[in-house]
Amino acid sequence: MIESVKYTLESTIDNSERELFQIDDDLNRMERELNELSIYRFNLVKTIEEHKRVLLELYLKED
């Protein structure tokens, strides 16, 4: 009986630890993706602002 409980507990601990490692890996991957998206967003905002500036200059030159 005790051996069975020990085995069940060891198995539960092993499974939980594997799941914890997987969650940590997923969190690290998501953090990297978030950083990449943040950089992409920043660059996109800069590009939009630059295009708006150039467009405004073109409109002003027409006048």
Structure report:
- With 63 residues, this protein is mostly helical.
- It has one helix spanning 2-62.
- Which geometry do the CA atoms define? rod-shaped
First-residue to last-residue Cα separation:
92 Å
Largest sheet: none
Parts with pLDDT < 50 across at least 5 consecutive residues: none
Present the secondary structure layout:
Blueprint: H1 2-62
Short description, anyone?
This protein has one helix at 2-62. The protein is an all-alpha fold and 63 residues long. The longest helix is centred in the middle third of the chain and has 61 residues, at 2-62.
Salient structural properties:
0% strand; 97% helix; single chain; mainly alpha; rod-shaped; 63 residues
